[in-house]
Structure formats: C-alpha cells, structure tokens
Amino acid sequence: MNPRASRRDLLLRAALLAAIAAVSPLLMPAKIAAEILICAIFACATNLLIGYGGLFTFGQGAFYGLGGYAAGFLMARFGLPWPVPLLAGLLMGAVSSAIIGAFCIRRTGIYFIMMTFAFNQMIYYLAYTFRNITGGEDGLAGIKRPPFGLPGMTSLNLDNPTYFYIFVAAIFVVSVLALIRIVESPFGRVLVATRENPRRVASLGFSVSLVQLVAFMISGAFTGLAGALYAMLYWIMPIDAVHWLNSGYIVFTVLIGGTSSMFGPIIGIFIWLQGFFSTLWARWPLLFGAFVVIVVLFLQGGVIELFRRLSALWGRRERAEAS
Amino acid sequence: MQAPIIRTEALIKQFGGNRAVNGVSLEVGGGTLHSIIGPNGAGKTTLFNLLTKDFPPTSGRILLYGEDITREPPHAVARRGVGRSYQITSVFQNMTLGQNVWVALYRRERQGFLNFWRHADRDASLREEATEILSRVRLDDRADRLASELSYGDQRLLEIAVTLATKPRVLLLDEPTAGLSHEETESVSRLIAGLKGRYSILMIEHKMDVVMRISDRLSVMHFGSIIAEGTPEEVARDPGVRKAYLGS
Amino acid sequence: MSLNLVFTQLLNGTAVGMLYALMAFGLSIIKGLLNIPNFAHGAFYAVGAYVCFSAYERTGSFWLGLLCGFVASGIVGMVIERFGVGKLLASAYLFQLLLLFGVALMLEQAIILVWGTAGNSKSPPEFLQGAVDLGFTLYPRYLLFITVASAVIITAVWFLIEKTKFGAYIRAGIDKKEMTQALGINIDALFTLGFGLGAGLAGLAGGLAVPLVGVTATMGTDMLSIAFVVVVIGGLGSIYGAIPAGLIAGIVQSLVTIWAAELSTVMIYVAMLAVLTWRPQGLLGER
C-alpha cells in the first residue's frame, strides 16, 4: 500500500467517523449522543482484545471505572487544565490493565475469562469499600468539567452542551482512528496472527504473551480515556461503571455490531445504548438479558456479518447474471 | 568433523507413569537431513515436541550450536534460527498468503518493538520478498487469497514457505507429507531434499520411501529409546529394526 | 488478640469455606464438562436460596426447603443447558458466554420481581440453633452443621462421580469428549444432567446459606465472584481442586476479619494473586 492510498483511506475513515458524530445529535438529545460516542470508544477498545486479539475479556469495566475515578478525583478536587484528567484516565487505564493483564495473560481460554471477571469484581469491591476516594455506591460526585482552551484562543466552558459534545466528538474521532491505525499496523497484524494460531506465532519468534499484554494495555488506555469522558458527562462517576453488567454489556455490543472491523462496535452501541434504557425501568436488565439471549440464540454473527453476507450474496448474483 | 548443530543429552520425558522419551542422546550434523522413524507410540512425536520446546524435558539437555536451550521458550529458540512445521498444517487461515509470509518476514527484519503506527503493508520490500518466497512454492499467483481457500496440499507448501521466510538455519519438520496425495508428497519431498546443505534438518516421517530416499542419517525409536542409528542402508539391514517394526 | 479468637475464626472460616467449596465444586463440574465459565452460577445460588427460603417459610421444614432449592436450581440449570447452552455448543465460544451472562441478568431481575429488593432472613431450625461449648469458645451449631452437611454432600457427589456408571460417563465426558460420543453415549443428555448437577450444588449452597446470611438481591453476584476465584485457585485439570481452594478462601477471609474486617473479602483476591504468582497451575493443577 503506497503512502497516498494509505492516507486516503485514513481520511475516508475520519470523514465517516466525523459524519457519525455530526449526525447523531440531530437524531437524539446531545447528552445521549455524547454517551453513545463515549461508549463507542470503550467498545472499540474492547474489540481490540476480543475481535482482533481473540482475548475474551469480561472485565473491561474495571479499567473504565478506574479511568473515570482517576479523572473524576482530579476534576472534583482540583481545577486542572483539561488534558490532565484525560491523561490521568488514559494512564490509569494503561497501568492497571498492564498489572492485571500480567496475571491474566498467563492463562488461556476459560481461565483468562474467569480471571478478567474476578479482577473486575475485585476492583468493584475496592471501589465500594474505599468510599472516601470513590464515593462508594453513591459514586464520585462533585466533578467539574474543566474549561477547554488551546494556546492562542479564549477558553470555552465545557458545561455548555454544544461545546462539550464537540469536545467528545473530537476525542471520539481521534481515538477510533488511532485504534484503526493500530490494528492495521504490523503490531495489529501480529496480534491477529496470535488470535489465529498462537503456537505458530511463537514458533516464528514472537513472544505471544508480550504481544497480548501490550494489546491489553492499549485497550486499557483507551478504555480509561473513555471512563474519564464518562466522568465528565454527568458530573459524577457512578459505581455501576465498574459493575460486571457494564463489562458484559460492552462485550455484547462488540459482538452484535461485529468484531471484524472497528466500525462494528460503534454500530453495536447505537443498537442498544445502556444509558438510555436504564432510565426507563428499574428492572431493565431483565429486558437486556432477554435481548442478549435472543440475539445470541437466533442472530449470530452480528449486524456487520449480516451486511457482509448480504453483499456477498449480491455480488454472487451480479456475477451470475453477468456470465 | 563439524560439531553437531543439534545435540541432545539423555533426554527423558515422563508423563505420569509413562516414560515417553527414555534417555535419548542424538546428534544432527550441519547441512544434513536426519530423520527419526519408528513404530507408532515409539515416542517420536514427544521427542520432537521436546526439541520444539512445546514442553520442558523431565531431565536431560538440549544443545543448539553448542548452547544449552533446555529451558528456553519456543519464541526464543525460534529467534536462534530454528524453524518448524506441523503435522497438521498450521497456517493463519483468515489471513492472505502474502500476510502469512509477511508475519514471518517481519520478525526477521524488525528485531525490536513492533511498529504501531504505519500501515503493515507500507514496506514494499517486505511485500516483494513475500511474493518471491511464495513463487518458490508456486503460490505467488494467489498471494492475495485467504489461506483457507487453498487445498490442503497447497496449505502445506504455504506453511513450509512461511517457515523458510524466517531464514532459519535449522528445520524441524513434523511428518511434512502427512495427509498429502502422491503427487503432493513428491513435490514436498523434492522441496525438502533441495534444502539439504543449506539447512540442517530433523524430520519425523512415516512414509518409508520418502525417508529412505532423501535422508542422510536415520535414528530409529522404539519404546522411547533409540534402537538403531546410521545411514538408511545401515538401518535397513539392522535386525533389531526389523523386529521392532514387524516382530512386536 | 487471643488465640481463642484465631481458633474461633478458623472454625468460622472452615464453615464458610465449605460453602465456597460446594459452590465452586459445582462450577468446576460445569467447567470441566462443557468448558465454559458459568456466569449464571451465582444466579443458581440465589435461586436455590430464595426457593429454600420460601419453602421453609411456608412449610416450616428446612429440609424440604433445601430439597426444593436443590431441585429448583437443578431444573433451571437443565432447562438453560437444554434450550440455550446446548444449542450453542457448535457456535463461537463468545455466544455461549453471553448467553449465560444474559441468563444471569434475567434470573437476578426475576428474583427481584418475585421477592422484592429488600432482603430477608430466617433462623435455622430449632435443633440447629444455639451453640456448642467447645471449651475455648461457644461454636454456633449451625456453622457446625454447614461444615458437616457440605462435607457430606461433597463426598456424596465424589462417590457419584468416581464410583457410579453415571459418574464414569461424566468423567469420560470431561476427559475425552469425542471418544465418549463415539461410544454411543448420549452426550447431549450427559451435558444437560451434568449442568443440572452443578447448578443444583450451587442451589444447595444457597439453601444452606439462608440461615447464615439470609437472602439478599445481590447474593448471587457476590458469590459468583468468589466461586470464580476459588476455581482459579483450585487450578487446572482437577475438578476437586475447588474443595481445598474453597476452604482456603473461607479461612483466609475469616482470619483477616480479625484485623481488618473491610479487607476480608479482598484478601480472597490477594490469595488468588499469590497462588497465580507462585503456583500458576493452581493447587491441584498439572503442568
């Protein structure tokens, strides 16, 4: 692929992402649209592990929550410039996923899944217990959005919903583009190879555990960043973000949207935004659980797979007609 | 006399009550094709897996170029220039042929951290080399097809091409002609015979005609030990070998 | 800090640990047979507890309650396997996991719909109330009962698995799936029954826990996490690893309560980290 084609592809993707971000607030309240974009970052980061790495992680909520708590703590107590809480979320996500990943990566398959879940629960329990830092089950409140400013411009108040939405949208586009870049890079391709056949990859000279650990860290970093944004969204970081329901939810959106591309998870979030349904009925997880069960039993492969199959069918028909 | 490339010293592998490899000491000379044969259950595959570092031995040592690699993990041994193939063809099914070879080439070319940022296909020289390697096994015309689309025999050739792409000096081949048709067996054994001299090869193989024709040396295993060793002619005349295959 | 306290907590920990062991043992059986982490296991525990509670309330018989709890969870488990997990065995792994996750959510919410969000409690049956005088401490009879009952149940299941024909099928299904099928054994039925057994054990653990901790809306989730940790500590390969692991978890938790009550549950996770660091294959695992 020559540089021009690669750059053109990137610009196309960026345009598509920007279009999604631009259209969404026209279809729904800005807050909901912002939440969708934030969850989309979370989902794409998770897809790096699940879709590209073949690592079924059921504990991403831990990093989402930790990122949110780190950022939220800073925003509630101190008035720091806007890059600081975002960086804090990102770093917290990266570091915590590196530590937890180091334990989980050692085991494969079923144990990996169980351990990601167990660590998620451990973080939830710690968040519940250390109320003075996290606010316990009441969440970390009193978060103040920092003003947005760049050198040479007047600062914008991010409490203004429009400005905040643009802020989130920009980070969304940049984050997802970065993730796309990463999965198409040499690292990304080797990661996919480790999903396909880890023994073979090792026999070619790669340290599979190192590749997987780095993937875990990258995913954790972006997840933490999403958590930081979420803390800004409602000016509070709820403990629900760390709950295993959130972890399972994000896996589900990745699956339903399709794991084979970074756009799949975005579709998945649009299909079912947890934040929206939770306001409708206290027992909404019952509906969500039922939805998951139905989709899994009857609609496997997700939406993107459906598109792929339809377009393959179309292409075959066209070729048949042409011959 | 050149020092052996691979040497094992009294290798033992015990699984519970079963001693699959019972004190095997063998040597593979530089540039030779050394085959391990023996009846089913003789321990050949276990011995092979010890050499590919799939699991550690219960006791004994493995030396590569005189250095002790007994405790090294597979990827470290691979970086020392050891390539391997698998009994059941092992390619990256959902990646193209070119991408399959690319993975091997990339490791050879880039020793340090993996690049996160540039597109994987940006490096034209890697792509050209991948095509060249695929042409050696006559698969270059299908470089952009998925590996899953190939026939089993062609996948086997792809796997060997990928192994060769890492530019190893030593090859460990696990039943390279397993599951192949007569013609496919012919082309693969010719390919392997052509690799002698440039590579030091250790091979497990069941097809006697292939083994006898292309091997420089044979080791015969039975019940976890080596019962005979020598050139194909010497081994064919060995009475103990006959007994092992036909007697018990 | 007296030695008395330590011994008391050791005994407490043993009782709690036996419950953990029972729970995790069921999880191990399901994991060994179907090779999935059962995300709904906590829900089975909760179902067992709530059904036992209600049956006990209605009839006044704790034994009937336990039986109902066991049967209810077992049936729920078998239904889920037969119409859910079993149908997905040929599909990608992720689907099976998400199914169990969805089922867990539904069961948890269903319990709240039926029994409400407020928890409840119940005292043990008359003859199990009060305490036994052990000299250095008064030990609650019910805790002793839990220890003994769990041990009896585990031994019974061990006997079932190791000494009966059904158990032989289960062991074959765990070790050599294809072979079992080739021998003409109905592997679908085996999976359903095995899943039901594992679920029933969770339900039994739930029933036993009722006089101890009562019933609460989140009891399933709390137990699920511990069960997972216990299975990880117990290790690869052996379904019985969960038993000593459960005991360790219970004892660690109870001992830590002496110094720092709020950290007692976290210590179970720390124990998991310790085991993973120094013995990555777990207690009874092979490597």
Q: Please summarize the sheet with the most strands of chain B.
A: 6 strands, mixed
What is the N-to-C succession of helices and strands of chain A?
HHHHHHHHHHHHHHH
Largest interface, and how many residues on either side? A-C, 38 and 45 residues
Major sheet summary line of chain A: none
The number of helices of chain A is 15
**Order of strands across the widest beta sheet of chain B?**
7-8-9-4-10-11
Mean pLDDT of chain B: 89
Q: Number of DSSP strands of chain A?
A: 0
On the 0 to 100 scale, the average pLDDT of chain A is: 89
Would you identify the regions of chain B where 5 or more consecutive residues have pLDDT less than 50?
none
What Rg of chain A, in angstroms, do the CA atoms define?
20 Å
| Percent of residues in helices of chain A | over 70%
What is the number of strand segments of chain B? 11
Q: What does the secondary structure layout of this molecule look like, with pairings?
A:
The complex is a heterotrimer of chains A (323), B (248) and C (287).
Chain A: H1 3-27, H2 30-52, H3 61-77, H4 83-104, H5 109-129, H6 131-134, H7 161-184, H8 186-196, H9 198-203, H10 208-233, H11 244-257, H12 263-271, H13 274-277, H14 284-298, H15 302-322
Helix pairs in contact in A: 1-2, 1-7, 2-7, 2-10, 2-11, 2-12, 3-4, 3-5, 3-10, 4-5, 4-10, 7-8, 8-10, 11-12
Chain B: E1 6-15, E2 18-24, E3 27-28, E4 33-37, H1 44-51, E5 59-64, E6 67-68, H2 74-79, E7 82-84, H3 97-109, H4 124-136, H5 152-165, E8 170-174, H6 182-193, E9 200-204, H7 208-214, E10 217-222, E11 225-230, H8 232-237, H9 239-247
Parallel strand pairs in B: 4-9, 4-10, 7-8, 8-9
Antiparallel strand pairs in B: 1-2, 1-3, 1-5, 5-6, 10-11
Helix pairs in contact in B: 3-4, 3-5, 4-5
Chain C: H1 3-34, H2 41-59, H3 62-83, H4 93-115, E1 131-133, E2 138-140, H5 141-163, H6 165-175, H7 177-182, H8 187-213, H9 219-234, H10 242-259, H11 264-278
Antiparallel strand pairs in C: 1-2
Helix pairs in contact in C: 1-5, 1-6, 1-8, 1-9, 1-10, 2-3, 2-4, 2-8, 2-9, 3-8, 5-6, 5-8, 9-10, 9-11, 10-11
